[in-house]
Design a protein that fits this description.
Radius of gyration of chain A: 19 Å
Largest sheet of chain B: none
Number of strands of chain A: 12
CATH superfamily of chain B: ABC transporter involved in vitamin B12 uptake, BtuC
Structural class of chain A: alpha/beta
Oligomer: heterodimer
Number of domains of chain B: 1
Strand order of the largest sheet of chain A: 6-7-8-3-9-10
Helix content of chain B: over 70%
Number of helices of chain B: 14
Pfam family, one (chain B): FecCD
CATH superfamily of chain A: P-loop containing nucleotide triphosphate hydrolases
Number of helices of chain A: 9
InterPro entries (chain B): ABC_BtuC-like, ABC_transptr_permease_BtuC
Strand content of chain B: under 5%
CATH architecture of chain A: 3-Layer(aba) Sandwich
Structural class of chain B: mainly alpha
Strand content of chain A: 25-35%
Largest interface: A-B, 63 and 50 residues
Number of strands of chain B: 0
Distance between the termini of chain A: 37 Å
Largest sheet of chain A: 6 strands, mixed
Main location (chain B): membrane
CATH topology of chain A: Rossmann fold
Keywords (chain B): Cell membrane, Membrane, Transmembrane, Transmembrane helix, Transport
Radius of gyration of chain B: 21 Å
GO biological process, one term (chain B): siderophore-iron import into cell
Distance between the termini of chain B: 40 Å
CATH architecture of chain B: Orthogonal Bundle
Shape of chain B: globular
CATH class of chain B: Mainly Alpha
Shape of chain A: globular
């Protein structure tokens, strides 16, 4: 994945060493209906320049927390701040130049090509009366290259495989030249090779200085890639730290309701989670049935 | 060098899109001009195309000049402007709620406008007051539909709710027509199905200006409209404000639809079919301006067919033709939607 970007274009505008922006949630409570919050009073500071992985059982609130950090869901209480400013007070385009977001089930407009989709990521850089510039094309091309999707540029989104499509979506977020990238389960529905491919792209972005927060389901992959692991259970953070610190048998039992053996990857020294059996009775919050609009597939999106 | 590969691809895609936009616009304009000349030439008195041109230039003899410029041109202009207004109204609504079924005629907006206009006429209103009532009726209908559809604007729910609102409006309209003592049966037809047969220059002018204003807004807001097609979350993620875009576009769509109803009646299905045809021709996108051209061509063609090709002594209004063409398309789209929902 060695992408050659056109000379003047950088996807991460920060010079090395520049202070990465600080994204944090303070006493954040949010949900889809006012009376049933999914995330309860969470305090979390995203580690700048690191790859943070949010994990937790279904309905633990990890996607909801990410959506709160991404201002896709307004806070009921508390707030999310970027460098100390509440994000709801930051103008939409300005925020989109700092924070890139990939929602869980993004919708590709009918007939759009991968290149055109990635170009949508340039929207926050295009003032109303100016429109597209040649810089925009260079950034779009570099973003496609960074996710190894340059050869897909002319293909229509509906012709691409799941893994290809996901890389194009990530390229769209990169085209915003964000310093923080938030992704909601970008690897769900992908086979293991494509999951690794997507995570390698994210790792490369972190190496370039971008702060990345990603929701993942696979604990072993999470441990393999995370600089920082945040474990959620019932809408609260139950553990935060490096994978080695966080992934203990007790935490996995409490947060996921399984008895697991934690082994150590002989190559990386990172923990490997080996599920053994359900803790009975099921202690996990799977019984909770709060409807989550993010997980409701959009059933009818066709234009004619 | 993969970025260079992508750069070339971006260029090629853009050239293809431009070609397609240019050819679509060119073909629609050519068809429109051909239809316009035909509309000016045919009728109870046939005028040769050369004489039509001469009449437009002001050099034809008195009779032809009068027929072309005073009788047929106003009707032609109204058909074009109403078609453009309805086409844009439909494409805007369909784009911002991301649902090809959501057009002002399907969801009861034009019905609400018609009913309110006739109620106002019954109460003795004329002129601007009628147009104002049409706008109020349209606004009530769209607010009802959006409120009852909640967050599920993308599905068939908005259509089901819309059909209920349309029936409600139809009931009110029927009642109002019995009370309104409209002088001729023609007037009743006008409010039930729509017609471009009674043009008035000031009304056409006002509608034309509304079309121009919304067209400019569409060009300035093209980025936001394109972002809207990504879904609210992704649109927010790239720095657009989908709620604001939706409010603006729904307002523009409702005003255009209400104003068209005020001058030409409901003209079923023009708003509904113009968007899908335009998007098919352009290969995607909001295609609002293309939909304006498609709408203009559709209304012009429908009026031409209604005036000249349907046998009988009474000329049927253009709305009958647009309805006959549009209804099958609605059925087809609903079947497609049901299949997709079944698969999902």
């Amino acid at each position: 994945m060695t992408a050659t970007a056109p000379a003047p274009v950088t996807l991460s505008p920060d010079a090395p060493g520049a202070a990465a922006p600080a994204l944090r949630a303070e006493n954040l409570t949010l949900g889809y209906t006012k009376d049933r919050p999914v995330v309860h009073g969470v305090d979390v500071a995203v580690r700048p320049g690191a790859l943070t992985v949010l994990v937790g059982a279904n309905a633990s609130g990890k996607s909801t927390l990410l959506r709160g950090l991404a201002r896709l869901l307004p806070a009921h209480e508390g707030h999310v701040t970027l460098d100390g400013d509440p994000i709801e007070r930051i103008p939409a385009r300005q925020l989109a130049r700092t924070i890139g977001v990939l929602p869980q089930n993004p919708i590709a407009p009918e007939g759009i090509t991968a290149g055109e989709l990635v170009a949508r990521g340039r929207y926050p850089h295009q003032p109303v009366f100016r429109g597209r510039s040649s810089d925009d094309d260079a950034v779009v091309a570099a973003s496609l290259a960074a996710t190894d999707a340059a050869s897909l540029a002319e293909r229509r989104m509906d012709e691409l495989s799941g893994g290809q499509r996901q890389r194009v979506w990530i390229a769209m977020a990169l085209a915003q030249q964000p310093r923080i990238l938030l992704l909601d389960e970008p690897t769900s529905a992908l086979d293991v090779a494509h999951q690794v491919e997507v995570l390698d792209v994210l790792r490369a972005e972190v190496d370039r200085g971008t702060t990345v927060v990603v929701v993942l389901h696979d604990l072993t992959l999470a441990a393999r890639y995370a600089d920082e692991l945040v474990v959620l259970c019932d809408g609260r953070i139950v553990a935060q730290g490096t994978a080695g610190e966080v992934l203990t048998e007790a935490t996995v039992r409490d947060a996921f309701g399984i008895d697991a053996r934690i082994l150590t990857d002989p190559d990386t020294g990172r923990p490997v989670v080996l599920p053994r059996a359900l803790v009975s009775p099921v202690a996990s919050p799977v019984a909770s049935t709060v409807p989550n609009p993010a997980k409701t597939p959009v059933v009818f999106q066709a234009t004619v | 060098m993969s970025a260079a590969v992508a750069l070339g691809a971006l260029d090629r895609t853009r050239r293809e899109r431009r070609m397609r936009a240019a050819s679509t616009t060119g073909i629609l304009t050519a068809v429109g001009i051909a239809l316009a000349i035909t509309a000016l030439a045919v009728g109870s008195v046939a005028i040769a195309p050369a004489d039509v041109i001469a009449a437009l230039a002001g050099t034809a003899d008195g009779g032809a000049q009068f027929i072309v410029r005073e009788l047929r041109l106003p009707r032609l202009t109204l058909a074009l402007v109403v078609g453009a207004a309805l086409g844009m109204a439909g494409a805007l609504l369909q784009s911002v709620v991301r649902n090809p079924l959501a057009s002002p005629d399907i969801v009861g907006v034009t019905g609400g406008a018609s009913a309110a206009a006739v109620l106002a006429i019954g109460a003795g209103a004329t002129g601007l007051a009628v147009s104002g009532s049409a706008l109020v009726g349209a606004a009530v209908a769209i607010v009802l539909v959006l409120a009852a559809s909640g967050r599920q604007l993308g599905g068939t729910r908005i259509v089901v709710v819309g059909i209920a609102v349309a029936f409600l409006a139809q009931g009110v309209l029927g009642y109002a027509l019995t009370r309104a003592r409209l002088e001729q049966a023609d007037s009743a037809y006008f409010w039930l199905v729509g017609s471009v047969g009674s043009p008035s220059t000031p009304e056409t002018l006002v509608l034309g200006m509304l079309v121009a204003v919304v067209a400019i807004g569409t060009v300035l807001g093209r980025g936001a409209l394109a972002a809207q097609l990504l879904g609210d979350e992704t649109a927010t993620a790239v720095g657009s404000r989908p709620r604001r875009t939706r409010i603006l576009a729904v307002t523009a769509s409702t005003v255009l639809a209400a104003a068209s109803v005020a001058v030409a009646g409901p003209l079923a299905f023009v708003a509904f079919v113009a968007g899908p045809i335009a998007r098919r021709l352009r290969g995607g996108g909001p295609a609002v301006l293309t939909a304006a051209l498609v709408g203009a061509v559709l209304v012009l063609a429908s009026d031409l067919v209604a005036q000249n090709l349907i046998p009988g002594s009474l000329q049927p209004p253009a709305g009958l033709v647009t309805g006959a063409v549009g209804a099958p398309l609605l059925v087809w789209l609903l079947i497609r939607a049901a299949r997709q929902e079944g698969r999902a």
